[in-house]
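Notes, Module 5: Reading structure tokens.

Key idea: the token line is not a picture. It is a compressed description, and you learn to read it the same way you learned to read a sequence, by spotting repeated patterns. We will look at two proteins. The first is printed below with its tokens.
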Amino acid sequence: MRAVLRWPDKRLRTAAAPVTEITDAIHAIWDEMIAVMEAMPGVGLAATQLGEMQALAVVDASEARGQAVRMANPEILHASMQLREHQEASPCLPGVSAVIERPRAVTVRFINAEGEIEERDFVGLWATSVQHQIDHLQGRMYFDRLGRVKRDMLLRRARKVG
């Protein structure tokens, strides 16, 4: 398994390239991403976190696990007005986390594992994780959603931990 990139690797600030078709190679990347996500353990992973600069994400916020949603080119079509706070972290910046406020529910369009365009509603932790992964695919980190003072404090704390 590939190692997760560590902040401030420049690739974490680079937007992922769109996926044009679902191939065996894409399935292999998704499989590796799920293995890395499970090993953390985490509730999602973007391909860019492994240095794979393609718009691929996996999310599994299920209690039982083993229900990962594989997504290529995910995009948010609709976000609820109601917000939800959640303590977010990333293996790219270990040892720190922050409370981030995001829409409680989102409707996402993506290409699924069968190569079909799918629209799906995600709520709660699923929605938070999907939004977090889409941020990664756009070259954003969760701490970019913090104000400057909180972001600077978090990055200083991360340097001490790392």
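Here is the second protein, with the sequence above and the tokens below, as before.
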Amino acid sequence: MKGDLFSSEHMVQPASAPGMTVENSKCIRYSVNGEMLARQGAMIAYRGQLQFERKGQGVGGMLKRAVTGEGLPLMAVRGQGEAWFAHEAQNCFIVEVEPGDEFTVNGRNVLCFDASLSYRISTVKGSGIAGGGLFNSVFTGHGRLGLVCEGSPLVIPVSPQYPLYVDTDAIVGWSAGLETSLHRSQSMGSMLRGGSGEAVQLLLQGEGYVVVRPSEATPQKAQQH
């Protein structure tokens, strides 16, 4: 077999390290020796002696439909082998979470993660159910977290002198130490007169980093999650 398809650019090579690695910009490879967790339906191929088990609603079980559609059910992957994970050809990235770190991430951006990481569901401070019920997942512990993002994400530093306002549909995640609240930038009258419609943003203040995707969720896209 010949052709560009069979070039080294596309050919899978032996795993260079155990655990999670970026196979290419759209896919994460996980060399499993024990257990890991992933988004249900994200496995695109595997080899070896692996078993897959549903984990219920998991990390996205409490996410409101208005924010992430159907939420994010998880599956546990156990055994020895290799598995490849992807979601709608979105770009893939790995976050190293170290002891003492805390990373808050939108459930729709979670692809897979080490079983050594702990997570909890947290309401974004200042949003509340009346404000749209913004629920995110907070990861702690020591391990790797695989994320997906539509397009190339922006990582924006935040300092006490420079707070950041982010569209709630564009936020991917943020580091510990940042305080959140909802900010209303326009009156209803302004929107009716042809304003931008960006009436509510998430305000992040403090010292840390915010990850933003360069797109907003459309109604059709949101329903698929």
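Summary for the second protein:
- The chain has three helices and 16 strands.
- Residues 219-224 form the longest helix (6 residues).
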